[in-house]
From TrEMBL:
GO molecular function: phosphatidylinositol-4-phosphate phosphatase activity
Ranges where the HSac2 domain occurs: 712-865
A single BP term in Gene Ontology: phosphatidylinositol dephosphorylation
PANTHER family on file: PHOSPHATIDYLINOSITIDE PHOSPHATASE SAC1 (PTHR45662), SACI DOMAIN PROTEIN (AFU_ORTHOLOGUE AFUA_1G15890) (PTHR45662:SF7)
Organism field: Mollisia scopiformis (Conifer needle endophyte fungus)
Signal peptide region: 1-16
UniProt-recorded name of the protein: Uncharacterized protein
Length: 959
C-alpha cells in the first residue's frame, strides 16, 4: 500500500518522541509532543542520526494508549511471518514496546531498556524480525495468551513515568506477596498456569499442540516491553497518598491512574499473545469474495473491513493528525497455512485397501515427518512419480470487534444486532505460488453467540442461562442481526448445536422461536434464512463425534447451493451465495467440530474440480488439515475462554477416547478459574482499548469489581421503563403526568440503610407519587406504591453514602439522595404483580388483574379501644444514579447527581404546594430541606470490618 511505514526508528527528542521511517523515500518523520500528545510532521530528526543514541527499531505502530493523564506509544518490536497470500507476507505480532510520553527522561529510560533487550536477542541469534517464511509450519496461538510475564524481569521504567521511583525491590515469596497485598492472586495463578509451571505433557493434556512447549513458540516475557510493575506495587509515597484520600474522602482520586500499571501489564500480554495479525500489502480483514479491487492507491486503513479493524481506536490520533503512513490495521484471530500434495493418477487399490479406506480418516497422524506428502525430502515428491500435485491451504479466522470480550461477560446479542464471539472463518485452497492461471477457492463460515439477550453467572461451574428483556426487545435485535448477515453473505443456514433438554434448552428454544417467526413472515430477510436445531450432545453421546455427519446429511444440500468463491486470472468466476452460521453455547468446541467437518467437505468438492478424488488417494492421512483446524479452534478458544478448545483431540486425530474427555475436564476447570478471577478486569480493558468505554470504566471496576456492558443502551431502557410504568400504574385518566426518573432504592421498603439497592422508577403526576419496583430482566413492573401528594410531610436531600469501600462510593459530591416522609393514608396503595416472579415482600394482589388496595392498618390496641388510628409515618428513600457513564457516546444527561436530586425535589414540591390550601395569615412551611441522609462519618461506622475484608479479598483476586 502506498506510503505505509514498514520499519521505523523510535527515539526521544527534547520536545517529543520521534518516529523516523527507515528505508523509504520519501520518508517523512513524525513527532508525538510530550506536552499535549499532539502528532506533528517533522522534516529532520533533530540532529539524531538513525541508530545512534537511545533508539530502537519497530515494525509498525499499534497505536497511542491514553488513560488518565498518561500516554504510551505501543509499537511492534517482534513479528513472525505465518503465511503469504498472492505473494504478500502475513505477520503475527509476538512482541511490543510501550514507550511513555510524559517526559524525555521517562522516554529515554524506556527506550534504552528496549534497545538493550533487542540487542541481547540479536546476540542470541534472534533479531526479532524473523523475516523468513515459515514454510507452512503450524502456528500456535493458544498458549501465549495465558502465559505470564515473570515478575522478576519486569522493568520499572513505565512506573517511573507514572510516579517517582523508589528503592523497593521484590525479595519476598509469592505467599508473602499475597499476604502483604503486593501481588494479586490472579498473577500468582497465571504464573502457576504458565509455561514454567507446567510440563510439556501437562500442557498437552490441556489440548495444546506440541509446538507450544518448544522454543519456536514466542514467549511473552521475551518481548521488548519495559513493563510496569505488578498492579499492587505502587511506590510508598503513592500508597500513602491513596490511603490519605480514602481516609479523608475529601478529594477525588484518579482511579484510572491507580489501575494504569495493571492496564499496561494487560495490554503488553494482549498484544504479545500471537493473536494479532497484519500485512503491509494485503487486506487480511476481507475474504477473497469481498476483496476490494478499486482505489488501490488509497491507504490500507480506508479499505479494511471496520468489523475486524481491532486497533481503530488506538490509531485514531494518527489518522486525525493526517499521519496515515503510520496507520497499520491489526486483525485479531488466527492465520495458518500448510502445503500438501495429492496424486492426480493414483495407483489402483486392491480389495483390502478399498475396504479400509473408510477408516483411514480416523487413523492418527503419522509421526515421521519425512513421509508427509508436502515434505520436499519425500521419495514420492522427489523420485519417479510425476503425478503429484501441490496445493496450499490457508485458514483465516477474523474476530469481530463488535461485542468483543470474554466468555460469560459477553454473551448473546447487543442492541445493534451484534453477537458475542462473532468470528468469520475463511478456508482458501490455492496453488503454492498463487499462480493466476490456477484456480483459487474460498469457503467462508461464521460463528456467533445465540442471538438473544441472555446471561450466565461465572460463579457456577455449569451456570444456568437466564433470558433477559422482553420478547419484543429481543426480536428487534434478532432481526437486525439476521438482516446484517443476509446483507453481507446472502442466504444463511443457521445450525444450533445446543441441547434440546436441560439448562441450554431455554435459549435454544428462544432462538428457534424467533427464527421460525422470521422464516414464516413475508419479510425478505426471512426468505433467506433456514434453521436447524441439532442436539450435538444427544447425537454424539458416548464420544461419537463422527455423528456430526448426521447434521451434514440434513444441511448438505443447502451448503451445496451456497457453493464457494472461485477466482481465476484475477477474476471472480463464481461467488459463494450463502453462509453457514454455527453456534453452541460458547461457539467454541462443538462449533469447531462442525466447522472443520464442513471445511473438509468443501475441500473434497474443490479438489474434485482439480481432478482429484480424496476418497481414492493411497495416502489418505490428512493430519495437515486436522492440525490446522485444531489450532484454529485453540486460538479462538484462547481469545474468548482463555484456554485451548475442548474436543481438540477429535479435531486433530478424528478419534475420541476417555483420555480426551479427561483433558476436556481439565480445560473446563481452567475456564472456570479464568472466568471468576481474570476476566473481570480483562473485559474492562478490552472495552477501553476498543474505545467502547471511557476511563470511567475503571472507576466502576474499583467500586463493583465489574464493568458495564456497552452493548445495551441503559438510557433507552430507562426511558422505556418509565413509559411502561406510566401506562400501567397511573390508572386514573384524569391524572396528569409530570415526570419520571430512575433512581436507586433500598430493596426493603420503608428503610434507609438496608442493602442491596435496586434500580426503581419514580413517577410523578399532579396528584400522586408512584414508586415502582421494576424487573429489568423481563421489563415488567414487579410492584408499585402510590403516595398521595397531600400526605407528604417533608422532602430531604443531601449526602447519601451507603459504602466507603472505594473512593467513588465515598465521594460526598456524587453520592446524594432524597428521603420523602409521608403519612400513609387511605389513598395510598401498594400492589404486586404476582406474574413477575418478584421476591419483594409485598402484598399478593395481582397488579394486572387484582383490584384490592393495601392501606396501613391501625394497631390492634387502638382497634380494641375504639380509638381512631393515627396515620403511620413512612419514608421513601431514593439515591441518585451516577451521572457519568463509562459507555462512550452514551448520550447520558450532563446534570450532576446533586443537580438531578434538586430538580426532582423541586418538581415534587411544586406539585405538592399546588394542591395545598393555606389559611390566610398562615405562613407556608418549607417542604424541602437540605441535610445529610447518611454522612461519610456514619457510613464509615456502618461499614463493618467483615465487609472491608471481603472487599479487600475480592480486590486481591480481581484487581
Amino acid at each position: 500500500m502506498p506510503g505505509l511505514v514498514r520499519k521505523l526508528v523510535i527515539f526521544a527528542a527534547v520536545d517529543g518522541l520521534v518516529l523516523q521511517p527507515v528505508g523509504q523515500r520519501p520518508a517523512p518523520a513524525a513527532k508525538i509532543c510530550y506536552k499535549d500528545n499532539s502528532i506533528v510532521p517533522v522534516l529532520k530528526d533533530g540532529g539524531n542520526e538513525l541508530g545512534a543514541g537511545k533508539s530502537f527499531e519497530a515494525f509498525g505502530i499499534v497505536g497511542l494508549l491514553t488513560v488518565s493523564k498518561s500516554s504510551f506509544l505501543v509499537s511492534i518490536t517482534k513479528r513472525r511471518q505465518v503465511a503469504q497470500i498472492h505473494g504478500k507476507a502475513i505477520y503475527v505480532i509476538t512482541g511490543v514496546a510501550l514507550t511513555p510520553l510524559s517526559t524525555q527522561a521517562a522516554a529515554d529510560t524506556s527506550i534504552a531498556h528496549t534497545q538493550t533487550t533487542l540487542q541481547v536477542r540479536t546476540g542470541n541469534g534472534n533479531d526479532g524480525s524473523d523475516e523468513s517464511d515459515t514454510n507452512g509450519e503450524e502456528v500456535d496461538l493458544s498458549a501465549a495468551a495465558s502465559d505470564d510475564v515473570d515478575d522478576d524481569e519486569i522493568h520499572p521504567t513505565l512506573a517511573e513515568a507514572i510516579s517517582p521511583p523508589n528503592e523497593h525491590t521484590r525479595t519476598s515469596s509469592v505467599a508473602e506477596d499475597v499476604i502483604s497485598l503486593k501481588g494479586g492472586y490472579g498473577r500468582f495463578a497465571q504464573k502457576w498456569f504458565s509455561r514454567k509451571g507446567w510440563t510439556v505433557d501437562q500442557r498437552r493434556n490441556l489440548g495444546l499442540t506440541a509446538s507450544n512447549s518448544g522454543t519456536s513458540t514466542p514467549n511473552v516475557k521475551d518481548t521488548s516491553l519495559p513493563a510496569a510493575p505488578p498492579p499492587q506495587e505502587l511506590p510508598t509515597a503513592e500508597q500513602d497518598k491513596v490511603i490519605e484520600v480514602r481516609s479523608k474522602g475529601t478529594e477525588a482520586r484518579d482511579v484510572a491512574a491507580s489501575l494504569l500499571p495493571k492496564l499496561l501489564y494487560y495490554s503488553q500480554m494482549l498484544f504479545s499473545s500471537s493473536n494479532f495479525f497484519f500485512s503491509y500489502d494485503y487486506d487480511i480483514t476481507r475474504s477473497i469474495s469481498n476483496q476490494r479491487r478499486s482505489n488501490s492507491e488509497l491507504p490500507l486503513y480506508t479499505q479494511v473491513d471496520s468489523l475486524f479493524f481491532w486497533n481503530r481506536h488506538l490509531v485514531s490520533p494518527f489518522i486525525e493528525a493526517g499521519q496515515t503512513s503510520f496507520v497499520l490495521p491489526l486483525m485479531q484471530g488466527f492465520i495458518g497455512q500448510r502445503t500438501f500434495e495429492m496424486d492426480t493418477d493414483p495407483p489402483p487399490l486392491d480389495g483390502t485397501e478399498k475396504a479400509s479406506m473408510e477408516l483411514l480418516d480416523m487413523s492418527p497422524p503419522r509421526q515421521s515427518s519425512s513421509d508427509e506428502p508436502g515434505d520436499s525430502n519425500s521419495p514420492r515428491s522427489s523420485g519417479g512419480r510425476k503425478t503429484l500435485k501441490s496445493f496450499l491451504i490457508t485458514l483465516i479466522s477474523r474476530r469481530s470487534v463488535k461485542r468483543a470480550g470474554l466468555r460469560y461477560l459477553r454473551r448473546g446479542i447487543d442492541e445493534a444486532g451484534h453477537t458475542a464471539n462473532g468470528v468469520e472463518t475463511e478456508q482458501i485452497l490455492s496453488d503454492p505460488s498463487w499462480d493466476a492461471a490456477h484456480k483459487i477457492y474460498s469457503f467462508v463460515q461464521i460463528r456467533g453467540s445465540i442471538p438473544v439477550f441472555f446471561s450466565q453467572s461465572p460463579y457456577s461451574f455449569k451456570p444456568i442461562p437466564q433470558l433477559q428483556h422482553s420478547d419484543e426487545f429481543n426480536y428487534r435485535a434478532f432481526y437486525k442481526h439476521m438482516a446484517q448477515l443476509t446483507s453481507m453473505y446472502g442466504s444463511v443456514q443457521l445450525a444450533n448445536l445446543v441441547e434440546k433438554h436441560g439448562a441450554e434448552a431455554i435459549v435454544g428454544a428462544q432462538f428457534e422461536k424467533f427464527a421460525t417467526k422470521l422464516i414464516e413472515s413475508d419479510d425478505a430477510v426471512g426468505k433467506q434464512i433456514a434453521f436447524e436445531w441439532f442436539d450435538f450432545h444427544a447425537a454424539c453421546r458416548g464420544m461419537k463425534f463422527e455423528n456430526i455427519s448426521l447434521l451434514l446429511d440434513i444441511i448438505g444440500k443447502k451448503l451445496d447451493q451456497f457453493g464457494y468463491t472461485v477466482e481465476l486470472d484475477g477474476n471472480q468466476v463464481a461467488k459463494q451465495q450463502g453462509v453457514l452460521r454455527a453456534n453452541c453455547m460458547d461457539c467454541l468446541d462443538r462449533t469447531n467440530v462442525l466447522q472443520s467437518a464442513c471445511g473438509r467437505r468443501a475441500l473434497e468438492f474443490q479438489l474434485k474440480e482439480e481432478g482429484i478424488d480424496m476418497s481414492i488417494q493411497p495416502d489418505q492421512i490428512t493430519s495437515w488439515f486436522n492440525t490446522l483446524w485444531a489450532d484454529n479452534g485453540d486460538a479462538v478458544s484462547s481469545q474468548y475462554a482463555s484456554t485451548a478448545a475442548m474436543k481438540g483431540d477429535f479435531t486433530r486425530t478424528r478419534k475420541r477416547n476417555f483420555q480426551g474427555a479427561l483433558k476436556d475436564m481439565g480445560i473446563s476447570i481452567s475456564r472456570f478459574y479464568s472466568g471468576i478471577v481474570n476476566d473481570f478486569f480483562s473485559q474492562a480493558a478490552i472495552d477501553f482499548l476498543l474505545g467502547n468505554v471511557t476511563s470511567t470504566v475503571f472507576e466502576d471496576f474499583e467500586a463493583n469489581l465489574m464493568s458495564v456492558d456497552p452493548g445495551t443502551s441503559m438510557q433507552k431502557l430507562r426511558e422505556q421503563a418509565i413509559e411502561t410504568c406510566q401506562k400501567l400504574v397511573v390508572a386514573d385518566d384524569h391524572e396528569e403526568f409530570i415526570g419520571g426518573w430512575t433512581l436507586l432504592t433500598p430493596q426493603i421498603p420503608n428503610t434507609i440503610k438496608s442493602s442491596p439497592f435496586e434500580e426503581s422508577v419514580l413517577i410523578l403526576t399532579d396528584v400522586a407519587l408512584y414508586s415502582c419496583r421494576f424487573d429489568w430482566t423481563t421489563e415488567k413492573v414487579s410492584s408499585f406504591e402510590r403516595i398521595d401528594l397531600q400526605h407528604i410531610t417533608t422532602i430531604k436531600y443531601g449526602t447519601y453514602i451507603t459504602s466507603t469501600l472505594s473512593a467513588a462510593q465515598g465521594d460526598e459530591s456524587r453520592n446524594v439522595g432524597i428521603v420523602i416522609s409521608y403519612r400513609a393514608g387511605e389513598d395510598d396503595i401498594t400492589r404486586v404483580n404476582t406474574r413477575s416472579m418478584s421476591n419483594t415482600p409485598r402484598s399478593d394482589t395481582d397488579l394486572l388483574g387484582g383490584s384490592s388496595t393495601v392501606s396501613p392498618p391501625a394497631t390492634t390496641l387502638q382497634n380494641l379501644l375504639g380509638r381512631p388510628a393515627a396515620p403511620a409515618t413512612k419514608v421513601l428513600a431514593l439515591k441518585a444514579l451516577p451521572s457519568r457513564s463509562a459507555v462512550a457516546d452514551s448520550g447520558q444527561s450532563q446534570l450532576t447527581e446533586i443537580q438531578q436530586v434538586k430538580s426532582i425535589c423541586s418538581e415534587i414540591e411544586r406539585m405538592v404546594l399546588h394542591g395545598q390550601v393555606v389559611e390566610v395569615g398562615t405562613e407556608r412551611k418549607d417542604l424541602v430541606v437540605n441535610g445529610d441522609i447518611i454522612s461519610l462519618a456514619d457510613a464509615r461506622k456502618n461499614t463493618g470490618l467483615l465487609s472491608q475484608l471481603q472487599h479487600q479479598l475480592k480486590k486481591l483476586v480481581w484487581a
